[in-house]
Amino acid sequence: MRFFVVCPGGLEVPLAQELAEIAQRPDSKVLGAWVIDPTPTSPTGGIGLAAPISGAMALNLHSRIASRVLLQLAQAPYRQEEDLYKLASGLAWEDWFTSKQTLRVDVTAHRSPLKSLNFATLKIKDAIVDRLRDVTGDRPSIDTAFPDVRVQAHLTATQITIYLDTSGEALFKRGWRDEKGDAPLKENLAAGILSVTGWKPGQTLFDPMCGSGTFLIEAAQMALAIPPGAIRAGMYGDDVKPSRFAYRPLITSAHGFGFQRLKPFNEAAEQQRWSNLKDASLAQMLEKRQQYPNVDSLRISGGDINEKLVSMYRGNWQRAQLPDQPVVRQVDALASKPPGNTHEGVMLLNPPYGERLVIKGGRGQDRDSRESEDEDYSPEPENRFELNLETGRQSAKRSSRESLKKLQAQEEQDPKFVEFLRQFGQHLKDTFGGWNIFVLTADMALPGQLRIKESKRTPLFNGPLECRLFKFEMHAKRPATTAPEED
Q1: Domains in the chain with CATH codes
Q2: Sign of the alpha-carbon torsion through 144, 150, 154, 159
Q3: Rounded to two decimals, what is the model's pTM?
Q4: How far apart are CA 272 and CA 269, in angstroms?
């Protein structure tokens, strides 16, 4: 089977590396042969691969960077809307789901000659509905909010590709986050950024502006081999209690992944393979718990000035099935110190855009939150740009440039924040010598405001917002030399 694994723009290389690691897992190799497409040299919004149909289960369970796993059903040339109807109506939808299940169809396009994507979506939806009515005598209902089955089509200038979405809800919705405010930094973007930094389990990781803890929780789960889909896979049984604010209550084992509502995955053989995948993951988790027996052994810590966010982070940590309590302090980033007096480590942070939090949890912006975030946290359509399967991001770039100008304008009007960045840059020089500092921001002028020269910048997309991940290599201070005493 052919799959396309969608990811945030800029994370194609770490996603390709992750897919190769998943394919090499013993429990994945027994499913059949995997062939991953060459890593693209420019943004494509994802990676294609060939794998057994059971591979959808392994990908959804284990991929930390993926947004969705799309199963390709057909690809053909087209010229007009009737060609879309003809292709879709010729597919055996009855082999995948029943007319009693609800349906949603999404269409994205890159340089398509068609005038209306809404009309193209309608033609594909009509084709599916008509096919099921002709075969079964009944037609499925449409549910754009919480559908049982999602169909995704993508149009290029000459080709249409039709996919079944095997993920259901987007994969960054892990089920552990208690998020009552603005949409946070997506978990899969955080996981991809961790991969870009080169951080490995066992290394010291510190976030002085940790907010609700996205970076640190993703890192801890990586160290403990907890699959990102563990809660949705029901691997904790009835013990786990997902937050009632976890995007929506349906991100639990009761609703799971999209593939669990497709006929082929409910056959006995596939059910056994799904059970085997989870058993293998549980065994690996038990092994890692022995390697990291307590929270201190993880060497992962953070701080934040906002008391409410620190409390939220603690709750998220527990719902993510991580041990003990997280190592976190309510402290201003300007007073932060290397944990354990370590002389080297990785600092990773996503500072607020032009706004500092207030002490005691007053009104302020989550360190992980951005007003310009897309709407993926609602049951509305997923970010159209994230699902682009080609390189066309003209509208997304236009939107991000407009958002960036707005954010930069806000920062220019906030001299206190500019002064905070200058002080923070000096604090990094004075206190974190020998560390590698990574900062995700939409402010391209950040290095100048910190007064530190970056050693690397990686373009990334936080939803539609174009960002940079800046790397700063902090040189260790040389010990002071004393002048020889005079006779």
Answers
A1: 187-228+293-473 (3.40.50.150)
A2: negative
A3: 0.86
A4: 5
